[in-house]
Amino acid sequence: MKTIITILFALVAMAGLAKQKTIVWENPAIGYSDKPYFEIHKVELTKEKTALHVRVFLVPEFRIKSACYLQSDGKRYDIIGSDSIQLDGNNIPLDNTGKKDFVLYFKPLPLDTKEFDFLEGLAKGDYKVFGIHDKDYTIPPASVPTEYMSDDDGEGLAELKFDATPATIHFKSLNYRKGMNTEIKVQYVDLKNPAKPMDIYTNLNDDGEASLSLPICLFHQVSK
Predict the structure, then answer these.
(1) 43 burial class (0-12, 13-18, 19+ CB within 10 angstroms)?
(2) What is the dihedral of CA 188, 191, 192, 195, to 10 degrees?
(3) Mean pLDDT, the chain cut into blocks of 10 residues (224 residues total)
(4) Model's pTM, two decimal places?
């Protein structure tokens, strides 16, 4: 009987330890964010909740929406609370450093999560931080789609022919995620007037793709 009781106590203790397990990412790495003043400096994952320790600095005030959430593997984890700030309200950094530290609590991510996103929404101006992961973890490289790979049959480049129609350039951003709203800047140099380069802008679509059409200004020179 004593042995059975000892085993039961051991099982209860193990269950308690498992319940209390906390995984901490100190100064996690970030894949992409367009707001450098919004800094996630610690992530805590438990079975009960996921906590984001955030610092906002060098802004007169800021607001965090109560509709924000985490996203991982196509699943959404809604916010459940906050500490040191009011959700949906104007928050002002109080100390003379211009910084404000606070914590956001979300429904629990799986403890084996490797990376996730923090999103207020997908609209322009929303706080969006993509590819949050432990700094010791390396995100696997994305594979290049077949249609964007060059056809190398061993015979080199195809025969070059002049065509007066504009050249079309296709872009594909690997690891792109909807909501990044990334703008692409291309500098176009007309060789007839090289002293005045032109900046052309385009935005990636929801699939991370974009196209540009540019006139060919000097038909006998081609660079790859």
Answers:
(1) buried
(2) 70
(3) 46 48 95 91 97 92 94 96 93 79 97 96 90 93 78 64 75 82 78 78 84 68 44
(4) 0.74
